[in-house]
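[Meeting: bench + compute handoff]

Bench side (C.D.) handed over the final construct sequence. Compute side (W.E.) agreed to return the predicted structure before the next meeting so the bench team could plan truncations. Sequence as handed over:
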Amino acid sequence: MTDQPIAMVIHGGAGPLKSRDYSREVDHMRALIEAGRERLNAGAAALDVVVDTIVALEASGLYVAGRGASPNSDGLYELDASLMDGPTRRAGAVAALAGYASPITAARAVMEHTPHVLLAGNGAAAFAAARGLEAIADPAAWFTHAWRDPGKTAAELATGTVGCLALDRSGALAAGTSTGGVFGKMPGRVGDSPIPGAGVWADDAVAVSCTGAGEMFIRAAVAAQVAFRVRFGGETLARATDAALAEVKALNGDGGLIALTARGELVMPYNSAGMKRAALYPDGRIVSAVF
């Protein structure tokens, strides 16, 4: 369908600090959007673009996901990710995954090679090993240890979740989210990122990826709430996302989200100090910003 718009949205986490320079992240997100645009224009599937973009976000070490993750209170790295395919409502996720480079790749494997939606902990690691996914041989050398940067606060280290949404030429939506979780979290803690309906959602009409205070996003079922407000409540995307974030705020949480419809409408709201974000609009315009 030549008249079907394409669109794409990325976030690199809510809650950045006004005092820091995020020019590397802004440039990185813009480059990923430009690469995604070329692929979507060439007919790539939304799901493939979402996964590959998040793999790049994880590998960059610039965000609190993948290589940039911060450790839990035991000094270990437990990573979470989730993925949804809009047309089929298929979903895959991993939680508290240790020892593997790309949680989003593991999430896709769960979606495509198991009857399950979510694998956690040792079970997720055993599955990743069985699938031959890239293992982290030396965590001390592999992770970027951004948490050791004296210029970063615990608050900033707690808010670097990444996400991506895409709308392809067939009208299909896909959504993915990946995170290292909260700095210093309890071992085994799982936030909203690997939970479909909380930190990620995609159906045939709306796709959402969230970032922020994970427990509050779970309690407000933010990602699904946004989609259901639009689908069943007839609300505009802007009104739906604002209402969902208002619930998070009422629970004493903050954060942000990205949302995209099958018509190409997109929003990137947040109620924190800022949110690393970038987007390709259907008219071809690209934005990349933090504040």
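W.E. noted at the follow-up: The chain has nine helices and twelve strands. C.D. will use this when planning the next construct.
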